[in-house]
Description:
This protein has helices at residues 3-23, 29-39, 43-68, 77-93, 98-109, 115-149, 157-183, 186-193, 200-209, 211-227, 229-256, 264-288, 298-309, 314-338. With 344 residues, it is mainly alpha-helical. The protein starts with a helix and ends in a 6-residue tail after the last helix. The model is unreliable at 291-295 (pLDDT under 50).
Amino acid sequence: MTKKRLNNIFFFLGIAAVVVMLLTFDVSFAELWQHLCRTGYWLIPIIGIWLVIYGINALAWQCTIRGCTNDEEHVGFWRIMRLTVTGYALNYATPVGGLGGEPYRIMELSKDISKQHAASSVILYAMMHVFAHFLFWFSSVFLYLILAAMGDVPLTTVVGSTLAVITLFCIAAIYLFSKGYRNGLVVKVIRLIGKIPGLKGWSGRFQERHAEALRNIDAQIAALHQQDKRNFYYSLSLEYLSRIVQSLEIMFMLLLFGIDCGGGFNGMLLTFLHSILILAFTTLFANLIGFLPMQIGVQEGGFVLSIAALGLSAALGIFVSIICRVREIIWILIGILLMKIDRE
């Protein structure tokens, strides 16, 4: 199958996903319009902040590309930015996150650098993206405990037990990722897929045909962690920073509802910290059930639960989830349209 045909398949998959997303809103279009009218000009910074977030993601990916390529290979920032936006648009639109975005990025990036380097940089960046998630969730547990000690958020037996489970879950994941970075992870993942009923034959054939390439990719992943620690930690720090910046989106919506925790610098800071907690627990909940396309219903439920856990109204959770869904649709459309923009 040609790359042009694959590009068209990804394009129509994205369009179909947008249609499905529009038809699966939990509110009527009349109610949706009311929410949008209430948002007003706040919709501009809510959508615009994602240009900053994707820019940070692109810089993080650029670091991994530099670590996986030689001096003769170069990819410009705006090329990476375009593939970042389009890749995440496809990830939103397909089940199990990376089934759409990562293969597309490898396919497109292989026009600029070798296919092996493209695959290793995309896989390494995807690992970095997920690893940053676990670090974000892990640190959010301690943020919650600090706010609980200040008497700002509740700390019941149920909440404490939940935080303990999240902590253990994150520690286990961070340990596995650390081992993966030291020794490579791709070959082990392909073997693990072979244990899924019906995929054993495919896994064996894939390993046999691409054994050397898979070993080389694992070697490059390990090399970046061991030999190029500056790019590794720079990329990881940028990915973590992007989660903090993303919290501003929720903060804007809290301010829209008049929730500023007393106003002033201290009040705004507290509102921002609450936004970090809401984002952390919502994304944790959504990613645990990430096999649903566009996480239909999961993200909404996550917002309602995390906002209610902080003592805020469920109506606010519904509002936040709806506006975030609108933002997703807009950026999916932008990403899909970018697929059809020819390279300069």
